[in-house]
Amino acid sequence: MPRHKYLRRHGLMEGLLVLSNGRIFKGRLRGARQEAAGEVIFNTSLTGYQEILTDPSYAGQIVTMTYPHIGNYGSNNEDPESRKLFVGGFIVKELSRVTSNWRSTESLEDYLVRNDITVLEGLDTRALVIALRDEGSLPGLIAPAEGADLEALRSKAAQLPRMEGRNLAQDVSIDKAYLWDKGGKNGSRSGGETSARGLFKVVAYDFGIKHNILRSLVDKGAQVEVVPFDTSAREVLDRNPDGVFLSNGPGDPEPVSQAIESVRELLGKVPLFGICLGHQILGLALGGKSYKLKFGHHGANHPVKDLATGKIEITSQNHGFALREESLPAGVRVTHRSLNDNTVEGMESLEHPAFSVQYHPEAAPGPHDSQYLFDRFVKMMEAHRAQKD
Amino acid sequence: MPKREDIKTILIIGSGPIVIGQACEFDYSGTQACRALKEEGYRVVLVNSNPATIMTDPDLVDATYIEPMTAESLEAVIKREKPNAVLPTMGGQTALNLALELHDSGVLERYGVEMIGANVTAIRKAEDRELFRQAMNRLNIRMPRSSIAKSLADAERIAGDVGLPTIIRPSFTLGGTGGGVANTMEELRDIVRLALAASPIHEILVEESALGWKEYELEVMRDCKDNVVIICSIENLDPMGLHTGDSITVAPAQTLTDREYQHLRDLSIEVIREIGVDTGGSNIQFAVNPKNGDVIIIEMNPRVSRSSALASKATGFPIAKIAAKLAVGYTLDELPNDITRKTPASFEPSIDYVVTKIPRFTFEKFPQSDNHLSTQMKSVGEVMAIGRVFKESLQKALRSMETGLTGLNGFQGGDAPLAHDEEWLMDKVARATPERLRYLAEAMRQGWPDERLHELSAIDPWFLGQIRDLVEEERRIEGKKLEELDAAELKHWKGWGFSDARLAQLMGVREHQVSARRYELGVRPVFKKVDTCAAEFEASTPYFYSTYEEENESQSSTRKKALILGSGPNRIGQGIEFDYCCVHASLALREEGWESIMVNCNPETVSTDYDISDRLYFEPITFEDVMEIIRLEKPDGVIIQLGGQTPLKLAKSLERAGVPVLGTPYDSIDRTEDRERFAALVDKLGLNQPANAMATSLEQAREKAARLGYPVMVRPSYVLGGRAMVVVESEDQLEGFFNEAVKASPEHPVLIDKFLKGAIELDVDVLADGSQALVAGMMEHIELAGVHSGDSACSLPPFSLPEDILEEVGRQAIALALETRVVGLMNAQFAVQEKKVYLIEVNPRASRTVPFVSKAVGTPLAKEATRLMIGHPLDPGRINTKPLVPYAVKETVFPFAKFPGSDLTLGPEMKSTGEVMGRGASFHEAFLKSQIAASNGLRGVGGVFMGVIDEDKSAMVPLARSLIGLGYSILATPGTRRALLQNGLQDVTEVSLNPGHENNLYRLMAAESVALVINTTLPHKRTIDPGHFRRLVLTYGIAYCTTIQAARALVQALEAMGRERKFTYSSLKGYAGEGAGQEEVQAVRVAPDGEQLI
Q1: Is A324 strand, coil or helix?
Q2: Is the pLDDT of residue B852 over 70?
Q3: In Å, what is the CA distance from B421 to each residue of B437, B442, B458, B850, B852?
Q4: Do A311 and B226 touch (CB under 8 A)?
Q5: Is the model's pLDDT at B657 over the cut of 50?
Q6: Is there a catalytic annotation at residue A360?
Q7: What's the DSSP call for residue B382?
């Protein structure tokens, strides 16, 4: 009997979330029902749990969904954002018993069991969110309640590593470069997959890249080669790309020093576009500093202002770190700002063809307001190519 | 962009009387808009004919015109007030249509008034089906296949193309009036005829049906810099096929992946841009094919709507307020999110709870109309409930309805599935009715699988699974004994929204036993905040809902405070008037330094706006739910006399639980409600009551009615709005009506009163502090006794009764108030027959006339009443009771058009949904204005049809004479004609309902040759078929009178006002007295003592 079926017959299993500050929340274990650890964060997206589960940027984190009903539309083969599920654990108010959607191929619980993700369900998730909001994201662990030694769990939770200083990009990146040529980004009106037209050659650093970024690049005419996080600048330039893309990814940007170094070398030689961790890495390469936000930005409703046009974009965001504005050197201009907390959401180099955003223009999940940024990258590559010729 | 400085004065158009499809949500939106624009320093002018609104409160804006919602009166206001801009998006379809009319007739241009919030092109593109279709074609967004028909032949041809079933939608009507779903060509023909007539431009859309598809709504906002945000997504539990206003809806959408949701979001943004709504909110409806995700767009409303009100309450985002500010030039990022204060309005709310809305119907008022739901909206109100999970919100919504439900209750007797075959239940599941959800549960109890239920109903399996979970849990609960319960289990049930009352029913015990056990086990609710952001940011606005979890977020204060119990869902007999009173209570408390705490479950209202009260609990108004709030808040008192019957029903239990009731003590309520105690009270004061008796059996009823002498009035006790109340003329009619009365209130005896034929009725509202009382307003009804007071037109001051009678009525009312120790408001109804005064009814609470009186005399009675309730003595110096205008007339509006088969005659059972106020220098002017405002003004000159019962015939003679003098021709039935000719009239044309007759009435009506119908009929002849000429009166929009008194008032008014009908239009604060020219009106202020200050 497959393990998940066995588990399901097993009935309910009480579970605990133990935060590093000692606070305990009680719920039920679902999914893989194992002990799970990570930095506990919350995400306010109402939809898109499958994209979230498969977003490598959540590596090392236990994601709490603020929306209470999760799993209503099951899971499918089209919505994953990477090769596997990266979250460390999943916390929901209610995991749906019924799956209802024409694209669904598997219930969310079966999907989570099959992918070894533990779920804690039935706790006061709002109380947890308020705790995280007030105290900041905290490491925590999910454990079975039966026979639990609370004190032992508390001390174990207290010793869990914090996000600061962890190079998680190296954990989620790839070993070998590969070509990506599938377009038809999630959410495009035309739908369906398209293939690369090969108008541009883009090298994409994989710090935990989401597939919809790759699809978006292909849709703009790029042929993409995805390379490991530690690929050197020389190796990148040898591929003679029209542009280099710096991907999203988990954890703290500072320890990803090889990449920061490579980007510093690439600056001015080739157009650069960064998203999320890629944005932070670009910022560090340009001489800025990063810092950890209290509880980060994780959701699909974040207002960002494009400072050049004054227009507002509703953006998909997922980051625990940010660039410190005052640390950015003179040659860098802040282009986008969060309207919630005024943090830097986008920047560009005034000296080199390089720009980046902290949020996720590729959405998945989230609004499609910011897709113009991929066009901006294309323009930059065109200009660079024209200059080269 | 900062706000526009080139605009100084803004005209806001309200939505007029409450009708089905356009209810108090527009008072909510309009009030927000008024306040928002005032806050920005604009001079705001408002026109709304509905006095029962907060928006028409005199202090809210600079100039308030309670005048008919017609182009004529709006032009007069524009001429006087010279607004620079008009905001037409706050008053529903009425305001949009009026704004278009003013644009088309050149009025806006002539007076230099700019339309803000929506432009003419955008309104037309959204409202005109063909232009909308073209716009959607440009965007490559699929719509149901359809074509415009302008005739029956067109419609038949199109239906042949798109196939049956076919949806018929008239253009430019609200709430889908006149539309429907045709399953056969016969049905199609019937619906098309009515629909063509219902459309003001005689145009309908014949459309492919997407029956069974999933229905979604998105609330979109856009600012002048083209920033667009989605405030809320709403999923209809009921699939396509019925009006969204009649559907159970859930926020946010439950069964869409992010990919599909973002697709709808993208489409919404494209649509609002293409249609060209530059600033403000829109509601866009989509249907999604559950088999493959195909999307079609259904419609778009380029204005705030019922759904936007729901979305505002569901998320905490004040759509109307923000829309008003966007209209004057702000951008979304310049406006703060009121709830968080620190973040801007340019975001998309995230919520961490589930919201369920259930519509409330009143089919029992229109027994001739069947209760199947379709594309024409029929619900008269709605409730909303918030729960952390869907099951909780659903069960809270069910018990908020006040229809006797405690949850997914089953059916008894003839309504139970067991009394019928399987096919019967299949029909109950397949076809939408107000009870479908409960029949789904019944089918599950009978073991029907979800697949079958889905096939029959097309309801999404996710929702079916939720209902099944509840049904299965109920079965587990049934097997439990109170003493076996443990805290975890009980908390689990409570978390799924099971009320103590429901648990008690299932376990076969009493509610208080469950509550006691629950307290013993320490299972208590916590209160969570509605904060727009799923707790991401700290919220400063105390807007709460209950749930059963760990952390409570509602911290009660130590201030002096009072809890106000609201009036729940709107229904016929209890509507916006009571919400108006509750809002005033809150304002009064805050002015007096008390903390005001509002409890209500109606999302359409002003009372559930988050900044009306210091604290808002969006909760069902049941004993259990209210007590939990009281235990947390520990208020100094509870106000129960302003929310109508809803809170009053709780009075006894609250009293028993030791809750201090503010104002009139419970004992007084009991004294007026308990029949024997009431009789004693009447005796003690030496008042007259119509002779009366009580009966518990038909035998008894027969005997007692005979003793009283026919006609008698038969009515159930403890009901609202004259439910099942009738005048019985003779014994052979008694049985049927008696049984109806028993059905309406089975536990109580039926009341039989001697009917006071021909009596004139008076409504009196009294303010009292326990030792002093004063008459705040006295209204004389136009219709005689026998027509429910809520349906009767009335005049303040009385227009026909002599002064000594009025004084006597006032004296009696005051004596009643003092004797019953009323503190606050009391309403009494009297009847005057042959100069003798009879007391009909006393209610020691605010009545539905309170807002009307308040507007007529310029004193906010509910506010004053609240002051009295918290201990201030009555100070007559504060209270003006002299009318601000010489006459104010209230007229009612009816939903007959929405209920095919219902007759439009009046009786003791209330049927009106709303009211308008006509104000004038004379009774005639006020009355005629009220008729025009109620859409019962005569269109042009033509024939007046008269067909009256024998006893009314002689009264027709002077009316006919006057009408002829005014240039009308008289058409009459043979009998009425004979009576007219016998009395010396000439030139009366005989008309007949007989199709072969040369003057067939139907034909004349269709040819627009009939300007007015005067038709009286005997009560027992009032069951009619949908094709009856009285129904067609509605279809063709012909003015009508069904009582002789209304006809007389109307004809006299027409005569008095002459053909030019020169009306004076005046704002509440600036009535221009008689003789003041219409052109150069000087504001003549009326001082509190009524003296004119020139």
Answers
A1: coil
A2: yes
A3: 19, 13, 21, 50, 51
A4: yes
A5: yes
A6: yes
A7: E
Give B213-226 pLDDT, tens digit per residue.
999 999 999 999 99
CA distance to partner chain B, nearest, from residue A238 (Å): 37
In terms of Cα–Cα distance, which of B46, B38, B88 is closest to B67? B46
Contact B761, B784 (CB under 8 A): yes
Interacting residues of B647 by C-beta distance below 8 A, sequence separation 6+: B565, B566, B567, B621, B638, B639, B640, B641
Q: Which two tokens stand for residue B900?
A: 């095919």
pLDDT in tens, A327-381: 999 999 999 999 999 999 999 999 999 999 999 999 999 999 999 999 999 999 9
Mean pLDDT, all residues of chain B: 92
**Amino acid identity for residue B756 in this structure:** L
B279, amino acid identity = T
Nearest Cα of chain A lies from the Cα of B631 at a distance, in angstroms, of 22
C-alpha B797/C-alpha B804 separation (Å) is: 14
Strand B836-843 and strand B943-947: the pairing is unpaired
Helices (H), chain A: 3-9, 49-53, 108-114, 125-135, 150-158, 169-172, 211-219, 233-238, 257-266, 277-285, 372-388
What pLDDT sits at residue B579? 97
Q: Find chain A residues with C-beta within 8 A of B288's C-beta.
A: none
Task: State which residue of chain B sits closest to A79, comparing Cα positions.
Answer: B259
Tokens of A83: 């090769």
Query: 3-state class of B726 per DSSP?
Result: strand
ipTM of the complex model:
0.96
Sheet architecture: strand order including B63-65: B63-65, B43-47, B9-13, B85-87, B114-115
- Which residue among the candidates A39, A276, A298, A313 is catalytic per the annotation? A276
B1073 φ/ψ sector (left φ>0, alpha ψ -120 to 50, else beta): beta
- Spell out the alpha helix ranges (H) of A253-333: 257-266, 277-285
pLDDT value at position B241?
Answer: 87
- Residue B858: left if φ>0, alpha if ψ -120 to 50, beta else—which one? left
Distance (Å) from the alpha carbon of A105 to chain B's nearest alpha carbon: 13
| B636: its two tokens | 């100094």
Q: Verify whether residue A276 is a known catalytic residue.
A: yes
Q: Which two tokens stand for residue B164?
A: 């049956």
* CB-CB under 8 Å, B343 with A340: yes
Q: How confident is the model at residue B454 (pLDDT cuts 50, 70, 90)?
A: very high
Question: What residues have CB less than 8 Å from A158, skipping those under 6 apart?
Answer: A20, A21, A22
CA–CA dist B407, B514 (Å, integer): 15
Dig out the tokens for B163 from the structure: 């196939």
Does residue A68 contact residue B354 with C-beta atoms inside 8 Å?
yes
Write down the residue that tokens 């629950």 correspond to. B518
Residues in chain B: 1094
Residues of chain A below pLDDT 70: 1-11, 185-196
Residue A26 and residue A135 in contact, taking contact as beta carbons nearer than 8 Å = no
Encode burial over B368-399: b for 16+ CB neighbours within 10 A, e otherwise.
Answer: ebebebbbbbbbbbbbbbbbbbbbbbbbbbbb
Chain A: residue nearest B464 by CA? A98
Give pLDDT, residue B291. Answer: 92
**Contact list, A123 vs chain B (CB under 8 Å):** 550
Question: 3-state SS of chain A: helix, strand, coil percent to 5?
Answer: 25, 30, 45
CB < 8 Å from B in window 185-204 of A: 186-187, 189
Q: In this predicted model, what pLDDT tens digit does every residue of B331-371 receive, in sequence order?
A: 999 999 988 888 999 999 999 999 999 999 999 888 878 89
CA A42 centroid distance within chain: 13
